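We were asked to recover a plausible sequence for a given structure. The inputs and outputs are reproduced exactly as logged, with field labels preserved.

PROBLEM: sequence recovery
POSITIONS: 452
GIVEN STRUCTURE:
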């Protein structure tokens, strides 16, 4: 993958001719064979084709879709045929989870330590922000010293010694996903069912956990907005997981408003730590409970809901979930003191959005809130744009709340970027009405193929 290519710069004419030919034939309706798909992905990873040709290939797939055979081939190509963790040395069944990404969705940073503290080891490969949605790796980089991309030989030792590990794609594990993920982020090719499915399942294949829970979002703040298409994504991923020998279940969750009150890298880490210290944040916590329960049951099918819930409550109440996060952060290079609130990056400017009238909050558009965050540096608009870890939005109300004229609805934190537009976006994200509404439940549906 190149970050410096410019039109006219020929890296490898054979590889370039191949990807252009593949793009043209795919657009004309041809089915690509596995070897060709593997070749294009490998050419990109090894920098034999420039970004713009790979972006055209991915955009064509985003428009035309993939057959089942092509999807399996792309997933395998992302994982580069087989690099995976050897979890045989880990005591106990290992569990993994993945979310399709949303706004204010800091679920991973809560559920991984909770489930690990309950005694189930958790291994998770994760990614950066995609489009207007946040990414766990970016959030974690707001913790000083934390190493977010471990060499493959360090992953299992961290998992064994702590009980959990979180790491990004690397040159050893899913290099194809790592390279295309960064390109998709800045070329409008994130919102595609086959591209999302291949990206996620390739990472899950590289981990090869015993249990896997997929959290698929639906609503304006999700990559796939419409519920029926989110269900299609679930079914596509469950089928793909089965092809790769993974035992998966899924949760369909609501993204019609930001999941939690904090949107932005350091803000979301602080939010996760507050939950780990016992705050039951509405929306965010409701989803976390379900995901934790599903994760525990995925490796212990006889565990009842009540037993799972008792374990989850215990590790929050006795502080062991929080301690698990601290031990893990230290194992991956952070100093424990880096988790104190005042050590996190903060933005120096604050803009307060107030209610222009009294009424009920009837909507908070998460996509608009996410775009406001992007404009002030909480996400990327170009490949190598530096992030502003302290930038973001704190939402002071949720859908269904009553507010009085002048009440604070949200705060925007920023240091740079297009703060004027971001301010108006946050203002426009809120809808007030004169009738109370009930917000959709954070958890819409659970898909357990074993019970189907
Ligand atoms: N998460 C991923 O890992 N990949 C995607 O494409 C979307 C969400």
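RECOVERED SEQUENCE:
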């Amino acid at each position: 993958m190149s970050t410096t290519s410019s039109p006219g710069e020929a890296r490898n004419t054979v590889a370039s001719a191949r990807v252009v030919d593949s793009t043209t034939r795919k657009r004309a309706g041809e089915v690509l064979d596995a070897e060709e798909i593997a070749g294009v992905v490998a050419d990109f990873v090894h920098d034999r084709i420039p970004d713009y040709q790979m972006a055209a290939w991915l955009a064509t797939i985003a428009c035309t879709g993939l057959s089942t055979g092509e999807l399996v081939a792309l997933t395998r190509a992302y994982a580069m045929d087989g690099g995976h963790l050897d979890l045989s040395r880990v005591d106990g069944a290992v569990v993994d989870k993945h979310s399709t990404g949303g706004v204010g969705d800091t679920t991973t940073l809560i559920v991984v330590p909770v489930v690990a503290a309950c005694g189930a080891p958790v291994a998770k490969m994760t990614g950066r922000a995609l489009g207007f949605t946040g990414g766990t790796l970016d959030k974690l980089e707001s913790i000083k010293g934390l190493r977010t991309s471990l060499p493959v030989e360090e992953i299992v030792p961290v998992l064994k010694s702590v009980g959990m590990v979180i790491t990004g794609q690397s040159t050893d594990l899913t290099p194809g996903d790592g390279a295309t993920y960064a390109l998709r982020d800045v070329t409008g090719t994130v919102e595609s069912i086959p591209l999302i499915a291949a990206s996620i399942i390739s990472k899950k294949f590289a981990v090869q956990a015993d249990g896997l829970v997929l959290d698929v979002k639906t609503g304006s703040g999700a990559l796939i907005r419409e519920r029926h298409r989110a269900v299609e994504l679930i079914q596509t991923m469950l089928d793909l997981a089965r092809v790769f020998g993974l035992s998966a279940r899924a949760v369909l969750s609501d993204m019609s408003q930001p999941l939690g009150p904090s949107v932005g890298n350091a803000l979301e880490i602080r939010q996760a730590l507050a939950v780990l210290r016992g705050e039951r944040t509405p929306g965010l916590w409701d989803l976390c409970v379900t995901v934790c329960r599903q994760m525990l049951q995925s490796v212990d099918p006889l565990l009842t809901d009540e037993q799972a819930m008792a374990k989850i409550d215990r590790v929050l109440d006795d502080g062991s979930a929080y301690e698990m996060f601290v031990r893990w952060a230290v194992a991956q290079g952070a100093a424990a003191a880096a988790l104190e609130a005042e050590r996190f990056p903060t933005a120096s400017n604050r803009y307060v959005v107030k209610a222009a009238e009294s009424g009920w909050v009837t909507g908070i558009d998460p996509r608009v809130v996410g775009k406001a965050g992007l404009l002030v540096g909480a996400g990327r608009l170009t490949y190598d744009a530096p992030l502003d870890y302290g930038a973001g939005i704190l939402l002071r109300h949720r859908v269904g709340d009553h507010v009085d004229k002048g009440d604070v609805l949200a705060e925007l934190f920023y240091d740079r970027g297009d703060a004027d537009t971001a301010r108006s976006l946050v203002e426009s994200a809120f809808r007030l009405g004169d009738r109370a509404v009930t917000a959709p439940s954070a958890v819409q549906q659970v898909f357990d193929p074993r019970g189907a």
